[in-house]
Write a structure and sequence with these properties.
By secondary structure, the protein is mostly helical. About 75% of the residues lie in helices and about 0% in strands. The chain folds into 2 domains: about 10-120, de novo design (two linked rop proteins) (Up-down Bundle), CATH 1.20.1440; about 120-160. The protein contains 5 helices and no strands. Helix 2 (about 25-45) runs antiparallel to helix 3 (about 50-75) and helix 3 (about 50-75) packs antiparallel against helix 4 (about 85-110). The protein starts with 11 loop residues before the first helix and ends with a helix.
């Protein structure tokens, strides 16, 4: 396949193939859909709220579905017969990505996380206190274990 030695987003190297030359409209539909998946994830994440991220995860899933639909079309067009393997691989990857996006959305919907934008000092304080408490307890365990080891060594030295 032409362009297969390049590192590029899924679907873009495929569209560099000469089979797409007479089918520019198909290329012009597939490329933006493929790129839109990661762009929407980035956009939603950068907004800083869980609700915005969820919205953009669903938009990304929509773009993934659009790319998958285009790949299904390519799979039945005679002009793309030589690309069946690449098309099949990209369809499988798009299905996997769609499932992963859905799982991520599910986990966020069932979470109390509101997003980084809402992390005020008041919201951060309990987490910081919990971390400090865990560190303090770990230090107590370390000191206690050192004390036990010293006592054991002293007892051994006294018996010798």
């Amino acid at each position: 396949m032409e362009g297969s030695n390049r590192i590029c987003p899924a679907g873009i190297c495929l569209t560099a193939n000469k089979a797409f030359r007479p089918h520019r409209s198909l290329r012009n539909q597939l490329e933006p859909a493929a790129v839109s998946v990661s762009n929407n994830i980035a956009d939603g994440f950068e907004r800083g709220t869980t609700n915005d991220l969820l919205t953009f995860l669903y938009i990304a899933r929509g773009s993934c579905g659009e790319a998958r639909s285009m790949l299904c079309l390519l799979d039945v067009l005679a002009a793309f017969t030589d690309l069946k393997s690449e098309i099949s691989d990209l369809r499988s990857r798009a299905e996997s990505i769609s499932r992963q996006l859905r799982a991520w959305a599910n986990s966020l919907q069932n979470s109390d996380i509101r997003g980084q934008r809402y992390l005020t000092e008041k919201a951060r304080r309990p987490a910081r206190i919990a971390k400090e408490r865990e560190e303090f307890i770990a230090e107590l365990w370390r000191v206690q274990n050192e004390s036990i080891a010293r006592s054991a060594k002293t007892a051994r030295d006294d018996t010798e």
